[in-house]
């Protein structure tokens, strides 16, 4: 039986006198040793709870943080604990904006290069020129009639912009040709 710091603290708090045997091997010493486990668990849980205040260090409340922040979204996948903490912390620190540079910066965080320009179709329509190459597949006879002739694999890009755009804004996506 090794003496724990909590057992020592418990024995030190006992009153002085002959009736109070403060030896670790005595009856009160064994009782304090048995009680020290639950006190140690409560102390470690309280220490962890202080870390749970922030998504970058949360473990027990990480799912609650993700739910609060709307994660996982269309761009994040379930990864390791560290990756999930990082995504939640980045989302918590993100400051949104309505200017074009914000949207260009936002998609650049996910590896896309775009340029936003005005459209001739109206003030609420913006053309998104995707500058880097995005993989695609050609439409086949098995596809629906409404399927575009080229189906681009940019679901994360389009989802990301659609999620953060103002409600009245319409995005038209134009992809750079690889030819």
UniProtKB/TrEMBL annotation:
One Pfam family from the record: Phage_Mu_Gp48
InterPro entries reported in the protein's UniProt record: Phage_Mu_Gp48
Domain of life per record: Bacteria
Protein name: DUF2313 domain-containing protein
Lineage of the species this protein comes from: Bacteria, Pseudomonadati, Pseudomonadota, Gammaproteobacteria, Enterobacterales
